TrEMBL record:
This is Helix-turn-helix domain-containing protein. Residues 12-60 form the Helix-turn-helix domain. It comes from the Bacteria. The lineage of its organism: Bacteria, Bacillati, Actinomycetota, Actinomycetes, Micrococcales.
Length: 70
């Protein structure tokens, strides 16, 4: 992601775009933002999420599909 405070090359997504990308509801995205699990910038009454933050969140959320009992 861009250095903190330097968003000149960042692409921002709306909550609806993030929800569509992740295949979840907009409310789920709002919960992630309000819980601090996904960074976002507030513009007026709406939020914008850096695209790199979504990609990073998804990379960290990957679950290993191997069985733990094996």
């Amino acid at each position: 992601m861009a250095a903190m405070g330097d968003f000149s090359t960042s692409r921002f997504l709306t909550v609806a775009e993030v929800a569509e990308m992740m295949r979840v509801s907009k409310m789920t995205v709002y919960r992630l933002v309000h819980a601090g699990d996904m960074p976002a910038v507030r513009f007026g009454r709406s939020y914008r999420v850096p695209e790199a933050a979504v990609e990073q969140y998804l990379r960290q959320a990957v679950v290993d599909g191997r069985s733990e009992t094996a």
